[in-house]
């Protein structure tokens, strides 16, 4: 993957017509010069499956592809958390992803997972609400408690205590559900930081998905 | 304008199919029960002009319509800041509006002015960048400095000093431009709070404008 | 209005006698070089009324006087919020102004509106309490709730929700009152930022008014 | 010292005429019921000296008078820091006291030491600037650096490093001066917290001293 | 793994002798009732290797053992980041782990990785410095820049930009090193949150390792 | 006391073997060049008593020894707060010291008073819990409330009110106990800042005391 030029463009008022905001996002995926390795057979198959099902390979996977061990470990954890059976619906998991990423103001994850919320809910405005301020959405008490827990865990993890877990249990969440909320919130606290540290750019195709 | 019901919906996992996130947004515009006054001739003409040019009356105007003095004052200030001649382009002014509203996580303003950035720039992703994290956008040095000033003024106004103004002047901003950046940032710090305090809802039509 | 010199004075321990802290405050009102326009007849009349009733024209008005449209819009909004009929007394409105400005540490507004609290309450210490820490004042539950709402809206507007509005209603505030608290808090969040961005200086006469 | 009643007064709009904000401040000095001990001869002499020189005994001394050991230790440390020979003038020391107390929004210390700044400088507005936002004052570079150090040490002590000390040395502060700035800033970080924890009230006489 | 009792112990001053702070830490590892699955052969071998090399199985592994997929994914990612070849030494990686965990005040990770820093450096005080305030340690410029990047990424990931990456490159870090710093900081931002959300307890044996 | 060299060591990866983290901590106690005065007889006796009872003189005392008045005042206040009769046990007082110092991330106080908690409790892990996150410790309700009050007073003293004091009273704390909690929390808010401002180093012997 080619290393990008510095992102501050030429100055001046007459800088119109401006370069599209997504220019380069599909080719220069991060600010780091880390050329991809040859994909392992397993990962090649996985990329092919992405192409088939989504029509593209998410840029985060291309960003990790400079090292097959890192790519495999990321894929294994991601797929377990977001796609494996859980007491949380896939939409709920994506809502957590976006609410956490909104706290961390992570452009990559807000674009990619905002699109997922729009798709899974068939409700474009729900995706925007998660990205802008989940507190303004009309949510069930269950959804709201789930997101409050995830965002508190994001903002001040040292303050999370038994009382917070009890609050979730009272609304019907099992201990396994609590683990899943925590693990997903934790995962996006990781991914948000890897994306911000490397200026990772989302595939341009996400922007108008499920609008 | 009818006062809305409390926004926490019925609970439970089987709450599908969920109510669309924008349900009621065009009819129950705020959480306050403030019935509109009869529009003054001047404001009736202005609303008619909105209908004609935009196809709708922005909900913020309907929210202020319970009192003609408040509505007129708001309209006069808004139109002067956002539409009157200025050293800042209309797009630059809307970029300030969205970057400030992103700091304050104001749903109404992010939706309404995010649409404006998309329209004025013909670049949907630019609107999303302003709403998600303007620091991730590829901006000219001028644009970046303008937004850094507006967001610092939003986050910690007590820290803004001559050095900050000098930084803008060095990039070619005049003292009048500095006033305009400050006044627009200030205005959205006001509007964000009126909107959040009243749970103001954006017209649903904004969501897919200029995508 | 003449543009001021940079404010860092000559250095050194022997810099006594020091220049009075208000030096220049009545002549070089902001750090921006924006010469006043000729006042419109309406604004000239308003300035004359200020001179007559207050004995001076508040510097914020002089600061806006480089553009009659901006000045008129500011005056219209200010007078509606602070002087028009409302469920909030004028003193309550000024208390909100000062508590918000204290959060934002705005020198101009603390001086000018601190004086207003002293005058309207005939209680100098009340003005100081609002400027220093309103939580240390002995307030009625109504006053305290009003200020808590205004300051929460100032500090973290994204957290204001129905529960906050309900708290005000339980203490007897109407929905119109809630609007007024929000609109005044919002207005000073704007003014604090315009003042800080331009280093606006309060008229020196405020300092010993109503002591 | 009599323990005060809870400070939330009777509610209701018709609560005028309101109780003066300083009511009780000279008799019920803290929210704790800690009756004074008999003053030791040394402390009795000190209180007499206060009466003679100031015309009153500062309430903080009365608050500590429930225990002679605590009172003596406080007086010894206070007098050494604020009155003993130092490279910092008495005014500079009081400016530090007020700027630190402003960060911590301590009513007692802002009132008492704000009065001291007014007196020592013969400049009432300087006292208000220290209490409202010292960054808005026209200070010498020396004064500004001294206050920036004291306030950084107050806000985020874990970030203070050699670079900060070097900045002071470059402006002519000796290592002993640096100690004194730190010790005074530290002392008011202590006193602000004792005052806030006990709702300590300033002598009402401070309010109009040196206006 | 047995679910723990609520952690607030019996009250009262005579509660001596107090229960040791580590009581239960080796048996009731989290606050969630998630019984372990049978270990897969691969994971059984890994646990055996831990027993052999460390003398115990780290509690975090036991906490994940309720689900083999989650355990495997965690182990794969952890081992790649902390043990695989990298431009960062193992000590540097553990220093990042502890400095990040100190920002997040994560008891589990501070205990477990504090021990690792002590061991790898043969310098007990270095472990304490990383856990208490890494800025107080005498570090090389390389180490300091690495930790500053990791902690900024932890505290305000949205502020990390090209300038931060350039700072690392100027000190000799490669783009691969930058990835590794970001990935390790990200990983502990995840683990800190999983640990805090579940009240995960460190093996008691860590406390006196390498003192 | 000799002034230390700047703490950033020589750079480079091959900087092994690294200088021990405590190098110089027992000889160059602060970053300031403040040579000790001759000890007064009273202070000489006190230092001798420290040597006899502890085996060493705590570095904070050596740091203050450049001025006998400052040293005496510090010692008087410290001994009164931490050793004189009080409704708080000595362990409780040291727990407050460490929890406050953890909030302020003060290396000196965490090392010195962490050792004191370990010694007084005969429970090394309790010392680590206080330094890392007291919320993760299994405390009595009394202990927890005491530390919550002390840490709130540290983090946002302006928010402490009658409700906080009432919470302590309900758990059996007297008004004198409340004073003591506040005074100790205040004292360490002072000491943390003096230590951070001067880069004060703890005696190396503390590190393995009572492990």
| Number of E-state strands of chain A | 0
Q: Helical amount among residues of chain A, as a percent range?
A: 55-70%
Multimeric state: homohexamer
The average pLDDT of chain A is 94
Main sheet: strands, sense, barrel of chain A:
none
Strand content of chain A: under 5%
Write the layout of secondary structure elements.
The structure is a homohexamer of 211-residue chains.
Chain A: H1 41-54, H2 59-64, H3 68-83, H4 90-103, H5 107-121, H6 124-132, H7 141-155, H8 162-170, H9 175-198
Helix pairs in contact in A: 4-5, 4-6, 4-7, 4-9, 5-6, 7-8, 7-9
Description:
The structure is a homohexamer of 211-residue chains. Chain A is built from nine helices and no strands. With 211 residues, chain A is mainly alpha-helical. The longest helix of chain A has 24 residues, at 175-198. The radius of gyration of chain A is 18 Å and the shape is globular. Chain A starts with 40 loop residues before the first helix and ends in a 13-residue tail after the last helix. Residues 6-15 of chain A have low confidence and may be disordered. Chains A and E meet through α3, α7 and α9 of A and α3, α7 and α9 of E.
